[in-house]
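Write out this protein's structure.
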Amino acid sequence: MLKLNNDKTEFVIAISPHNKQRMPPVTLQVGSDTIHPSETVRNLGVIVDTHMTMTSHISSICSSLNTHLGNITRIRRYLDFDTCNHIIRSLVLSRLDYGNDLVLGARQADISRLQRLQNWSAKLIFRATKYGHASPFLQQLHWLPVKERIAFKILLCVFKAINDIAPVYLSSLLTLYSPARGGLRSSTDVTRLELPKINSRTLKSAADKTIFFTALSKWNSLPQTIRSTGSLPVFKKGLKSHLFPQ
């Protein structure tokens, strides 16, 4: 009983650039209207492109944050440290963190674009020069870099799924590791997760870019002391300390 608005109906075909050249034209018929595929579509604020690169989404984030940071820069001399910190957390970090797990596997050049915006934010709070190094300021603010923020989001989701504080459909995807024979050192690790077996090198390379496979791999690589904690606040604190660049 859903009534569609034909003017707002879009669809996208997820396909590689190589295969797109060989694909015949595809359209959808909605009533008397013919809907042609779009290069990008927006869903819950996330822009998905036909090649699943997330480049369009990252470009949208960068455009929005450049505007915000430019406006804050113009009024920075009227703001004290705490006020500027709160504004940037509200307008910039919240935007960087929203759906950031979906940019996993994006090009390093695109991740670097987001990192430069976070660096600008930190230097803006401390009123540092534009060309100075941002790492000391990120450490003082206790901000994880963009790449580590993505890992933090994914691993936090795994922790919640294992401890039954996440939706059932996520928990059902995880299987605790069961060694083929006893006596192994890994047999005492009750928090280790089962990784799907992938024989093909090509498939393994593709799997490394997926949220599911990366989540399992990163979880198993965590120290057991962090994985075995049952407290969410303790886990978040230990995980952030583990991910923070030394």
